[in-house]
Sequence to fold (306 residues):
Amino acid sequence: MNSVVPNPAAAVAGTDSPPQNWRIAALDALRERDPVAKVEAVRALDALVKAQGAQSDERWNPGQRIEAPADLPGRPERPELVEPRLLQRRSMSTPQGRVVLLHALAHIEFNAINLALDAVWRFADMPEAFYADWLTVAAEEAYHFSLLRMRLADYGHVYGDFPAHNGLWEMCERTRDDVLARMALVPRVLEARGLDASPPIRARLKQAGDDESAAILDVILHDEVGHVRIGNHWFRYLCEARGLDPHAAWLALAGQYDAPKMRGPFNFEARRSAGFDETELETLAAQDAEAQAAAEARKRPGGARQ
Ligand SMILES: [Fe+2]
Ligand SMILES: [Fe+2]
Fold:
């Protein structure tokens, strides 16, 4: 087992010699602050790894523990990060409202690049396929970010023009010491929420006549099913390796790490395609029914208030 401090000068793209240590290269991409350069670094590394063919390659260095640098994640000066309650919500029927939404989605995708890269470099002793999977996810997130960035440009805006919140990276930090917690709570909770959120947002964009933005949502939903499936796969792999029951382990981790409450409506079809099993879907349906019944009860005259 060896330990290294990454070299900040090492770059993925634009150098003569390709990186020999792919997890360090992922960390360098994570540290990159400029969004366009980050996207390029991820694309270059993904292309390099895919060109080499084999998922099982010693250049992942699974046995290597890499020291965390202090400057994570690399992100631009803007957007300004604020409390979620301070973010504006606007109707999607106006161009300004759609820009705010597209910017929020771009911010999610920018964070998603960082989250996937973090899974690549941070966790030692995983199979090479784990690193290859999360680099593929990072490359798809980079593509999603690029699509939204271009769409924002159509509206005369750039990423950074509106404030954003830091909730996604905070969950990444909270789960930095345990790959099982990371798999349980980032892909299976945060990314899975995207599966539920996409169809209604897409429908409202369509209704507003913004077919191009709606088409981007189609691409994202398609790919996100794959990301959640990858998360489910590795979550179950780790549960098996540790002799844990996946359902009990998930409930325990959700409590321990204060996972956001799951609220419907749920996209059961997408969640099923993403590898959630029937027991997990039934649990979600029961939680949703309970929440709806409580909401109905509150609406009735004299209903309980919480
Ligand atoms: Fe994405
Ligand atoms: Fe994703």
Notes: The longest helix spans residues 211-242. The beta strands are 3-4, 65-66.
